[in-house]
Design a protein that fits this description.
Elements: H1 3-25, H2 31-35, H3 45-72, H4 76-102, H5 106-131, H6 140-159
Helix pairs in contact: 1-3, 1-4, 3-4, 4-5, 5-6
């Protein structure tokens, strides 16, 4: 794989993870977060770091290879379309932690997680359509986002009777 597409996708993913990480890093030990009722199936905090690191690596590498192949096929429309889908996806991804951890909008974070799941499924489908089986690792991304949507929604339901910003 040529280094330029990988550097570009890695930089975009790094920015996304940095923005999201900063939004959640200080908020997780907060009194607000600690008081939230959470479902028993919520993974331990280190699991989130491990999963997201793996997913971000998949997003960067699969997207770089997909873009390289699209450019090699001289399919400028598909290249622009994939870049737009990737950009929207990373924007949704970077936005979720702030909506949940900083704004405390549990309902909106659930809607945003659902949009991210749909966007991730679209991105995975686009990559698989171009690259086939080598893009299959990206399927873990919408699966995890689907789980995150379920978890966000459950946290919202468990806490929506509480007063304050937590409702929506």
């Amino acid at each position: 794989m040529r280094i330029r597409p990988l550097l570009a996708t890695a930089a975009a993913v790094f920015i996304t993870s940095t923005v999201g990480g900063r939004a959640s890093r200080r908020a997780i030990p907060s009194a607000w977060y600690t008081r939230l009722r959470k479902p028993a199936y919520q993974p331990a905090r280190p699991v989130f770091s491990w999963v997201w690191t793996t997913l971000y690596a998949d997003i960067a590498t699969v997207s770089a290879a997909t873009l390289k192949q699209l450019r090699g096929n001289a399919d400028e429309h598909a290249t622009r379309s994939y870049l737009a889908a990737l950009s929207l996806n990373l924007l949704l991804n970077a936005s979720w932690p702030s909506v949940f951890f900083n704004r405390h909008w549990l309902g909106m974070s659930t809607v945003l997680a659902a949009a991210l799941t749909a966007s991730s499924a679209d991105l995975s489908g686009r990559a698989i359509a171009v690259r086939g089986a080598p893009a299959a690792p990206l399927v873990a991304y919408p699966l995890w986002c689907g789980f995150a949507t379920l978890l966000s929604g459950h946290i919202w339901l468990l806490n929506r009777s509480r007063s304050g910003k937590e409702s929506m």
